[in-house]
Amino acid sequence: MRWWKSSIMKEKGEKNLSTEPYKGVRDFYPESQSIQNYITDVWKATVESFGYQEYNASILEPSDLYRAKTGEEIVNEQTYTFTDRGDREVTLRPEMTPTVARMIAKKRKELSFPLRWYSTPNLFRYERPQRGRLREHTQLNVDFFGIDTIDAEIELISIASTLLTNFGMSPEQFEIRINDRAGMSKAFSEMGLSDDQTYKMYKLLDRKKKIDNFDEEAEKIIGAPLDLSKVKSIAVTKLIRQLNEIGITNVKYDPSIIRGFDYYTGIIFEVFDTSSENNRSLFGGGRYDNLLDIFGVDPVPTVGFGMGDVTIRDVLDTYGLLPEVISTTDLSICVTKPEYRDFATLLAKDVRAQGVNVSVNYSNKKVGDQIRYADNKKIPYITCIGDDEVKGETFKIKELATGKETEVTRNTVTEAFVE
Amino acid sequence: MRWWKSSIMKEKGEKNLSTEPYKGVRDFYPESQSIQNYITDVWKATVESFGYQEYNASILEPSDLYRAKTGEEIVNEQTYTFTDRGDREVTLRPEMTPTVARMIAKKRKELSFPLRWYSTPNLFRYERPQRGRLREHTQLNVDFFGIDTIDAEIELISIASTLLTNFGMSPEQFEIRINDRAGMSKAFSEMGLSDDQTYKMYKLLDRKKKIDNFDEEAEKIIGAPLDLSKVKSIAVTKLIRQLNEIGITNVKYDPSIIRGFDYYTGIIFEVFDTSSENNRSLFGGGRYDNLLDIFGVDPVPTVGFGMGDVTIRDVLDTYGLLPEVISTTDLSICVTKPEYRDFATLLAKDVRAQGVNVSVNYSNKKVGDQIRYADNKKIPYITCIGDDEVKGETFKIKELATGKETEVTRNTVTEAFVE
Question: Which of B8, B9, B359 to mutate to test the interface with A (most CBs of A within 10 A)?
Fold first, then answer.
């Protein structure tokens, strides 16, 4: 704890401190936070409806969790990594999957599988701030551990679809594109491609939507045009048929879906906005069965996906699907005379005990100002405490939007809020 | 995004990666997370019942926010501070007050005061991990901005008290001790103490409970015994009377309450556990009217406090007040034959549409194992899908705790959950 002579109080003549947040991160004032809460609430309610349990961890992780021979530069250049005074290298988690893999590995023998787990971590990337790519964002992570059959893929894709429909999107507004990394590797092998050619082809496919000369580049790699129609996946065909059976029809096979993360081992999927103006990728995931390898414990077959808050907030905004901001406060008590403030405080206490969220206006401003204040804060109901209320037994509760007044007693306040 | 050849997959012969979290932070497995969620839920419901609105910000803040001539060593030694590649000094926030002051200062002219704001940030301190002092913890922060009368203190102390009673504590289990920094400074000045003596006396008072030789040390500073009974505060007397009037009677004046934070300017309070075995400080707060100074904007009178998750979790555990962990999942569907999995998936979809949180057991294990699994996961209800259920129209939903069975149809599943 700091002491007495303030470290953050200004001496005369000193330069004012900046009020800007750190570069690439967001401040959430209450209106903006209420939208964040709405997104988190839909995330949680949806995945819990499928039986998922929440877990969490610290944003601080040992850097080793993200480091390996081939990925050294990742730890250093794309993450926030620093050395603490105990000479430990620490990284602010850039994604949640390594953390959850670590947690599962730690209790591999105690945990009763399968596990349905979710989290809504904040994640950090050191990169140039740009639209949808902030340095800190929040992501819903959903994972189903311990099922090696296609039931897990069906469930995760159902959850992905239900999330978007629960946010108010229609199935026409998005499309789920599915590929099969295992099937693809098999097809490339059957075409006679070397490991090196396969690797280069994956890299090229991942860039397919961003480049014009895909065919030309593919031919450079394999010496002949690539015929993606020859790449079939029985697993995907079966998955799509079963998804159709449970009413999810906006799915299609797309052999150009690759997804950058290197740990996927089977089915992968990516959800796209179908808007002709902005046919962007919204989120995705897939099967990763080998992630516990690095911890030296037995493997657990897993399917998972992540959905970022920035992208979903943006797409909901684009489609006009963000909810109107309303206050979590139900009632504002206006106080007409300073000496009635204690009366108002006691009344608020009684009203609160009935489950009503209530604030008291102690500003001593004119009643008109107090009403405008409630309106500005989007508090839907007000009541004014004047001579009559203090002497009598009843109060008038007014709905600001309609002007409708309901007379109640101290113990029947909730009657005013009945629809 | 990383690519293809895994950066986190192990090569043969390589050493296993540790599954331990970073030193001094916690992993929250679902059972532990459900307790965290309970604490957060009580925090939010309580402060929202008083009309408070949630805000938030990034954990990354410019280090300047915590730095000043007198406090330089704080930024370097007690916080996580590092330099990013843009040569910016960044600190993981050690407390929320400077952040909220920055946010208020930034929109000083747009915001409509008074403001009732709260947040539940995670905070970071670089220190030796010890009981109740982890490197990362979560804290409820509550602030009332813009009221310079004692109404603000009454409200904040009411919230502090209501939080503990909402957690199930009785008023006998805690005590609210109040002091007045302004009154104290005035009293010391009247006693003829110099600024230096006053400063030293504050430091000594803050250590009063931890040392045996307070009187001796006090005499060393002021040259005579300190008579705390001479230190009176009219403001505190009035505050205590008004708190008594609204039913908060476990409050007392304690001139040895100082609180370390240097920005307090008036009334300060601290809540203590009254247990004779562990008469510890639980949390506290006070009035700070000058915190916007450093940003060069007009002052806003403010009263606020913070309550940490580690301390409250510990005290609730001590008093046996932590809730029993229950699953957020209501119903587990057991599947007796592999070919009934699709039927179960569709049934789950229908049940979910009725607002029931439901998981399907795709494990293909024996029914007994599936029931034990549901029990282990603390899922309260199960239903088994066998030949009769697939052919017929009804299902039996069994409450595991009582063995009670209810027969329902696909569309009347919720009848089984009526108390």
Answer: B8
Q: Are strands A302-308 and A136-145 parallel, antiparallel or unpaired?
A: antiparallel
The type of residue at A300 is: V
Residue A405 to residue A416: CA distance in whole angstroms: 8
Per-position b or e across A118-132, b if 16+ CB within 10 A of its CB: bbbbbbbbbeeeeee
Nearest CA in chain A to B258: A4
Q: How many C-beta neighbours within 10 Å does residue B405 have?
A: 12
The answer to whether residues A382 and A334 touch, using CB atoms and an 8 Å cutoff, is yes
DSSP bridge partners of A388: none
Tell me which chain A residue has its CA closest to the CA of residue B66: A8
**Distance between CA atoms of B248 and B157, rounded to whole angstroms?**
9
Residues in chain A closer than 8 A to B89 (CB atoms)? none
What pLDDT does residue B260 have?
Answer: 67
Of the candidates B246, B262, B296, which has its C-beta nearest A7's C-beta?
A: B262
Mapping DSSP to helix (H, G, I), strand (E, B) and coil, where does residue A310 land? helix
Report the 3 state secondary structure along B104-139. HHHCCCCCCCCEEEEECCEEECCCCCECCECCEEEE
**What is the tens place of the pLDDT at every residue in B368-392?**
999 999 999 999 999 999 999 999 9
- For residue A3, what pLDDT band results from cuts at 50, 70 and 90? very low
Q: Is the pLDDT of residue A388 over 70?
A: yes
Tokens 């709405």 map to which residue? A38
Lowest mean pLDDT among A124-128, A394-398, B250-254, B410-414: A124-128
Angle between helices A341-352 and B151-166 (to 10 degrees): 20
Cα R_g (chain B), whole angstroms:
28
CA atoms of B396 and B264, how far apart (whole Å): 62
Give the distance from CA B395 to its chain's centroid.
43
Task: Give the residue on A whose Cα is nearest the Cα of B11.
Answer: A294
Of A136-145, A200-209, A234-243, A363-372, minimum mean pLDDT range: A200-209
What pLDDT is stored for residue B3 in this prediction? 34
Chain B contact probe: residue of A124, A151, A154, A185 with most B CBs at under 10 A: A151
pLDDT confidence of B69, banded at 50, 70, 90?
very low
Interface test with A, best of B14, B29, B76 (most A CBs within 10 A): B29
Which helix (H) or strand (E) segment is A308 a member of? strand A302-308
Min Cα–Cα distance to chain A from B158, Å: 9
A56: helix, coil or strand?
strand
* pLDDT grade for B132, boundaries at 50, 70 and 90: low
Do the Cβ atoms of B345 and A246 come within 8 Å?
Answer: yes
Long-range contacts of A36-40 (CB under 8 A, 24+ apart): A36/A138, A36/A309, A36/A313, A36/B56, A37/B54, A38/A322, A38/A323, A39/A309, A39/A312, A39/A313, A39/A316, A40/A120, A40/A138, A40/A309
Overall pTM surpassing 0.95 (yes/no): no
Q: Which residue has the tokens 């970073």?
A: B22
Q: Is the per-residue pLDDT at B52 higher than 90?
A: yes
Which of these ranges, A25-39, B1-15, B160-174, B235-249, has the smallest mean pLDDT? B1-15
What's residue A417's pLDDT?
Answer: 86
Cβ atoms A20, B57 nearer than 8 A: no
| Degrees, nearest 5: CA angle A34-B101-B258 | 120
Task: Say yes or no for a CB contact (<8 Å) between A349 and B158.
Answer: yes
Q: Which domains does chain B have, with CATH numbers?
A: 30-57+93-318 (3.30.930.10), 331-417 (3.40.50.800)
Of B16, B261, B352, the CB nearest to A295: B16
Neighbours of B151 (CB within 10 A): 24
Report cis status (omega within 30 of 0) of the bond before A114: yes
Q: What is the ipTM of this complex?
A: 0.93
Q: Closest Cα partner for B55 from B108, B127, B103, B5?
A: B103
